[in-house]
Amino acid sequence: MGSIRLKSLLVAGFGLIAVLFSANVFGQGQAEKKQEPAKEGFNANEVIFAHVKDAYEFHFLSYKGSDGVEHEVAIPLPVILYSPQKGFSVFMSSALKDGAVVDGYKLDKAKIVPVDPGVKVYDISLTRNVVQMIIATFLFLWLMIAIAKKYKKGEGVVSAPKGTQNAIEIVIDFIDDQVAQPNLGSRSPKYMPYLLTIFFFILINTFFGLIPGSANVSGNIAFTFVLAVIAFFVIMFSSNSHFWSHIFNPDVPFWVKPVLVIVEILGIFTKPFALMIRLFANMLAGHIIIICLISLIFIFGALNKGIGYGFAPVSVAFSVFIYFIEILVAFIQAFIFTNLTAVFIGQAMEGSHHEAEGVLAGMDDPALL
Asked: What does DSSP say about strands 57-64 and 78-83: parallel, antiparallel, or unpaired?
């Protein structure tokens, strides 16, 4: 019965949207008679992609002043360009507003391009993704160094940890007990610094991305690509002879080996690729959903102001709900990336089947229980 009511509400909702959107649709004959210039309305695509893509400034909001001119509240960032023909050019991104040309460069579709043809330029600017990642790195270092100093003084060693130290210690113990030990065993202390670094680095950057006006660093494909490349090299350097013999000489019938070897070689690269895509897609999707929900207010408001104001509480409520879900997703995705990295490292350093049987037999020894 409940499912029938839900379906009825959905049908009614989509029907209402269809009626509202069809209000401005008129016949072909009428369209030919009345051809008015289309008014520039709210561009949802532009807003969504401007939020999730990198930029040369931290943009918070735009408003129309009493003079009728639209003003922006933003923090411009330094633009650093190098051209073999013109050398270095350094200026603030605010100088490129309203189509201005600075030192032979202009802003074209959120990208700086040279005005003169044939000029090659290398963009090494401090974009908002870069600046935010630097800030997150310094915050991460400051937090960990401050906690390390407390341990050095004996706090948390001869006495119970307090405050931030207690919260971080819980996370460290969780990663050690649930990620490192089950996948890496006795080798876990060697990899704990790396596993903790990627966990906290992803977590801090994701939290920064939830601040309005900030950059979605963890939802940037370049960010997840670099993390995946680092994980790939760590996995490769942790491998042993048994791992490579399993790749190039699997224990299967000879007629299956050629196909399986190709699959195993592809698996070496698909594992870090999966890490990259999983984190990128999940972090990007959450931000797009929030922006889409907020954009619905302006889309409905463009059709009818009353509908826009009426839908605003619903849109804000759903946005807040998704926002809190994103906080949970930040922990989940940081944990999944760290856990899968540990799993892949453990697979690369696994011993032969005989060694594994010996380890399992040793665990049955009463002296170890």
From this structure: unpaired
